Amino acid sequence: MWTERWGHLQDRLDPDSEVREMVAALVDPFADLVRTREGRMLCHLLARAALPAGQLPNVSTLFTPAPFEVRIGRALPGLSPQEVTERCRLAFSLVMEIYGRPLAKMPTEPSAFPSAETVIAFVAAGLAAPTAAQAKAPASGS
């Protein structure tokens, strides 16, 4: 599911939409999966396996944070490599928490999830937010 979406991003990204499109490629498959009972269970199992270590054990490099981090780093050149890594880990953890730990008693029960667009907007904003140093700097013209 993710490989196909990432492949389509290669040629059509522009600087203004790049981060949002990458986040959508990460989030949309989860949003699709949680529409079914089996998909909710799969997301729950993925979260249980991935959240403690920050990534899934014994998986293809296509489903590790590295490709996402590299592309986010290129899209946001003002961030240090460490900042990119930290933000990507936060984004991944948030997405796994949202879709892997639904607000239901059991992962097989129906649960209300936030809209994919809300999740995409929130995660993209977090990835592209100013650094702590930039946020503390006085605004020009003040």
Describe the overall structure.
The structure is a single chain. The longest helix has 20 residues, at 81-100. The chain has 142 residues and is mostly helical. It is built from 7 helices and no strands. The mean pLDDT is 79. Helix 2 runs antiparallel to helix 6 (116-128), helix 3 crosses helix 5 and helix 5 packs antiparallel against helix 6.
The amount of helix comes to 55-70%
The helix count comes to 7
- Estimated structural class: mainly alpha
Strand content: under 5%
Overall residue-averaged pLDDT value? 79
Q: How many structural domains in the coordinates?
A: 1
Instruction: Please state the overall shape, judged from the principal axes of the Cα atoms.
Output: globular
SSE run: HHHHHHH
Measured on Cα atoms, how large is the radius of gyration?
A: 16 Å
The largest pleated sheet is described as: none
Instruction: Count every beta strand, where a strand is a DSSP E run of 2 or more residues.
Output: 0
The rounded distance between the terminal residues' Cα atoms is: 48 Å
Name the poorly predicted regions.
none
Which descriptors apply to this entry?
142 residues, mainly alpha
Task: Summarize it.
With 142 residues, this protein is an all-alpha fold. The chain contains seven helices and no strands. The mean pLDDT is 79.
Topology at a glance:
Blueprint: H1 2-9, H2 18-33, H3 37-50, H4 65-75, H5 81-100, H6 116-128, H7 132-136
Helix pairs in contact: 1-2, 2-6, 3-5, 4-5, 5-6
